[in-house]
Amino acid sequence: MQWSIRDVAERLNVSERTVLRWVKHDNLPASRIGSQFRFNRAELLAWATAHKLKVPPALFYGENEEREHMPSFSDALSIGGIFHKVGGTDKPSVLRAIVNLLRLPDGVDRESLYRMLMSREALASTAVGDGIAIPHPRNPIVLRVTQPLVTLCLLAQPVNFGALDGQPVYALFTLVSSAPRIHLHLLARLSYVLRQSSFKTLISGRGPAADILAEVRRVEASIQSAATTKEKGS
Predict the structure, then answer these.
(1) Residue 36, burial from CB neighbour count under 10 angstroms (0-12, 13-18, 19+)
(2) How far apart are the C-alpha atoms of 150 and 203, rounded to whole Å?
(3) Measuring CA to CA, how many Å separate 138 from each of 9, 36, 209?
């Protein structure tokens, strides 16, 4: 589903003029159809994360989508894996290393995936600031996987990724899902986790995989606790 300027303004609680300013001056990804702009939800959430906007994850579900049980971010990260000292001296070599490490089903064309990631970087960097990037093509990576996965690669040496804040990237998250709505759910959870200073401290210090997963589970538990409390107060 593509959103209009009004849709984006309502969900982010800003004026339509602000959304237009973001498009013109802050590289908010948008497609133009005639005289109208249209926005991809996955790109919008990634952009909001890069610009440190506090966006309630629930806003990135369609009003008519079923709220069926969604996979936890920690489970997806456990399946995808956390890799330390990943090699690469520049953006192409780092993305090549990541594509080779992804735990993908047999038969997936990794070369094609690599080209899609590089094509996306040519449009705009997927670095979201503070040394973190979320490499992805323009559309979510949707494959025939039995379970969605998130892969975290911690680089041996930080690499220039063209981030808005100018910081080199040392940590990269790659999401692979079986459906767009699951991709959005995981991206929303990642966006929330990246706001936690305790998590950023852990990954910037290249903490053990077990400690990183434990911290993600703690953060997710706090989300669930807050949601339960809100429902009881309604």
Answers:
(1) exposed
(2) 15
(3) 21, 19, 29
pLDDT tens per residue, range 57-108: 555 444 444 445 678 999 999 999 999 999 999 999 999 999 999 999 888 8
The radius of gyration computed from the CA coordinates of the chain, to the nearest angstrom, equals 17
User: Which entry of 69, 136, 183, 185 is annotated as an active-site residue?
Assistant: 136
Domains assigned to the chain: 2-60 (1.10.1660), 73-230 (3.40.930.10)
pTM flag (> 0.85): no
Q: Is 183 among the residues known to form the active site?
A: no
b/e per residue 143-158 (b: at least 16 CB within 10 A): bebeebbbbbbbbeee
Rounded Cα distance, 151 and 23, in Å: 30
